[in-house]
Each structure stands twice: as C-alpha cells, then as structure tokens.
Amino acid sequence: xxxxxxxxxxxxxxxxxxxxxxxxxxxxxxxxxxxxxxxxxxxxxxxxxxxxxxxxxxxxxxxxxxxxxxxxxxxxxxxxxxxxxxxxxxxxxxxxxxxxxxxxxxxxxxxxxxxxxxxxxxxxxxxxxxxxxxxxxxxxxxxxxxxxxxxxxxxxxxxxxxxxxxxxxxxxxxxxxxxxxxxxxxxxxxxxxxxxxxxxxxxxxxxxxxxxxxxxxxxxxxxxxxxxxxxxxxxxxxxxxxxxxxx
Length: 247
Hints:
The protein is an alpha/beta fold. The chain contains seven helices and nine strands, in the order ααββαβαβαββαβαββ.
C-alpha cells in the first residue's frame, strides 16, 4: 500500500511539481469537509431521492456519487476526472431544448457517459445514433446493463457504448452533438477540444457542444474554433464556427 501511495506521489510531482502537488492534496482533503456543510448535505440528500425515484421508475442503476479513486482505471488521466454524478433529467431536458438542430440528422456523443443516464435520456429523442464514451470499466458495465433493462421511451435504438479514453476516441465523420457533464478538469478538456477541432478540420460538418455544469467554459471560448449559441448559469451550447466548407 505504501509503495502505491509513493508511486502516485512521484507521478504527481513529475506532473504538477511540488507546489502543485501540495495544492492538489489540499483540495482533495477539503472535499470531505465541504460535504459536511449543511447546504451540501441537503443537496446530496435531495439528489439521492431523485436518483432513487428515477432508477425505480425505469428499472436501472444510474444514481450515486462515485469518486474515481474508488474505481479501477488504467493510466493517470483519472486524476483529471471528476466523480461520477448522473445529470438530473429535468436539467437534461432544458439542455436539449436549447439545441437548435433536428436530432435525426445528428449523432449524440456523451463524453464520460458513466452509468449511462444521459445516454438513456438521449435515446428518448430520435438521434441518428448515440455513443457513450466511458473510461471506467466498472461504470461501463453498469451502463450496459442499464441499456438492457431500461423501461423508458426509446426513439433511437442505434446505441454504442465505448469503454475507452476520451483522448483516444475518434468522432464519427458526420454531424455530431458532443455532450459533456463536467466530466474532467481543464487540462483534459483542452486536449479534447483540440481533438474535436482536428476532427472538424479533417471532415468539415456541423458539430454542436452541449456543456452542462460548464466549469471550464473558457477552454471553449478561447479555442477560436467554437462559438457560443446559448449560455446560462447551468449550461452552455456551442457550435463550430461556420465556414463556407461546412456541410
């Protein structure tokens, strides 16, 4: 156990430096204290009640808050990930309502699909296809079972779940809606944004981004490749900057 901790410490110092490692450790230690705050406890209790109601209604397991360090994940990119937290169905509905496209013309891609709640909710719309990308095998397995047992309305049955790293995922070369529910921190988000931009350069087409809980909006804003369509306190919608070559 000590050897594992020491190995993580060495990796963190190589990656963040000594001061960055201290700050990272302090932030991690502060999380349990934040969870003890009355407002945080109340919010988590309400979330647990909504999660339970959703899962019981549809015969699935999509609830809970799961820190990534409790999961078996290859590599080190998990250090830039955030805990699993399924989106509220009403919040997801508001996000989709702000999407100015015909779903049947687009593939919906969920970056950090977790247990698959957003994938299931998206299936209630007539998207051309749906893809969920999740790098934690334990969450991916739950998502696959949820897809099998889901009792909700399904208008899109062409659904693929990919267990892999978002930094290695290749976007389909057709119109795409990329969905993010704050799945990772700024460093990984910057690299994913660059990959999406590269994909668009290789095959110009409409690419929209639905970003819920947009903690790293600045990454999209300063990319020079995406323009905001709608921005609220809870989410942001982007699209690739229009050019004459877009399909």
